[in-house]
Sequence to fold (217 residues):
Amino acid sequence: MPVDYKIFINPLKEAKEKAKPRNFKQSFELIIKLRDVDLKRPENRVNMPVALPHPPKEKMAKVCVIAAGDLYVKAKSAGADGVISREDLEKIASDKKSAKKFVKSYDFFIAQADMMPLIGRLLGRYLGPAGKMPRPVPPTADIALLVDSLKRSVRIRIRTQPLVMCRVGLEDQPLEEVAKNIAAVFSALETKFRIPHNIEKVYVKLTMGPAVKVRLK
Fold:
């Protein structure tokens, strides 16, 4: 059963009121603690992008495309934050420091499918642990559409701890927009878990503010 976004509005308002003013724009953060989830089972571990209906314009996700030929050309005008060729990839991978910096610089990667073996060989040791292995796509993919979707997304990753933590908006966004972003995260989790059965606790907070509990019922 979908979670009604309206239940998040008052907790978001409270979190905003309780947080002290800072000299930077704070983000709204969502924290979800799961229960009755066996993370030893691979199917319960999660690493997926969730497209937000109202992404914070000033903090859109950074997307890099690794491609060749026509897809490389299309990616150049698709709004990607970075477009990497085979030659660029080999150069980056030749220096450990550059490789680590490259992986850290982007939130999501898209790669031409036939380049995935090369990417795995050259950068797999850095991309894998970071949970950032590229999404493989065919050369005919609508790269602009994919880039736009990922730029609007946050990454939901559950590995060794039954926790979800992600940014869902900025403090100057309308609270209704932030609440709808939270509802989108819950909709994504609902494809893997039972809501609300598998939810133990939910909190919202600003970056430097106290956590405020959300009651789902």
